[in-house]
TrEMBL record:
Source organism of this protein record: Aureimonas phyllosphaerae
Keyword terms of this UniProt record: Cell membrane, Membrane, Transmembrane, Transmembrane helix
VTT domain ranges (all copies): 30-153
GO cellular component terms listed in the entry, alphabetical order: plasma membrane
Bilayer topology term: Multi-pass membrane protein
Protein name: Membrane protein DedA with SNARE-associated domain
Coiled coil: none
Length: 203
């Protein structure tokens, strides 16, 4: 897999990086994150420019999510109306979720890119729920910049060292997994508290 990704990057460079992340952000199953990490490592070896890697990833993520937003805004409500009942999503539940998304939507959009699956469906979901586009654009672009910088520059600076640590210590994977679980758990708890406070607020 790594050889396949590296070969594509060597042949098509920033274009394949942009396209992969763009398509992944619209909801398609493309390995955008893996390609970004590989591109960052290649930049560390002088094969790519790290700023080109960052900009390609940021632009692809932002534009892809906005295409997903438009598709959700245009067609999402129709899909919910026609097929939502099949998965228990009635119009009443849909309106409830829409209102809650308006309340806690900004942090969700901001961190969505760091979470698998949510990264692929956030734009479509935000559009379906008619989350304000200007707010979505701002938080989405900021989240894409943070994600592109974290993975792109992180792989650029630490790529070889990370690889060494992972192969040198059997506890490295467990430590990384623990960090992600703690961060994700804290985020989920924060969102649940906000939702609970909204439910208890008198109408």
């Amino acid at each position: 897999m790594l050889n396949w990704i590296t070969g594509f990057l060597q042949e098509y460079g920033y274009g394949i990086l942009f396209l992969s992340i763009f398509l992944e952000s619209t909801g398609l199953p493309f390995p955008g994150e893996s390609i970004l990490i590989a591109a960052g490592i290649m930049a560390g070896h002088g094969q790519l420019n790290v700023w080109g890697v960052f900009f390609s990833a940021w632009l692809g993520g932002t534009l892809g999510d906005n295409l997903g937003y438009w598709l959700g805004y245009r067609y999402g409500s129709q899909l919910v109306a026609r097929h939502g009942h099949r998965i228990g999503l009635t119009q009443e539940k849909y309106r409830y979720v829409e209102e809650r998304f308006r309340t806690v939507g900004p942090p969700i959009v901001l961190i969505a890119r760091f979470i698998l699956i949510l990264r692929q469906v956030c734009g479509f979901a935000a559009g379906t729920l008619h989350f304000p586009w200007w707010s979505f654009l701002f938080y989405n672009a900021l989240g894409a910049a943070l994600w592109s910088g974290a993975y792109g520059f992180g792989a650029y600076v630490l790529g070889d060292r990370i690889d060494t640590y992972l192969h040198g210590s059997p506890w490295a994977y467990a430590a990384i997994a623990a960090v992600f679980l703690i961060l994700s758990g804290g985020t989920v708890l924060q969102f649940r508290r906000k939702l609970k406070a909204q439910r208890e607020k008198p109408s």
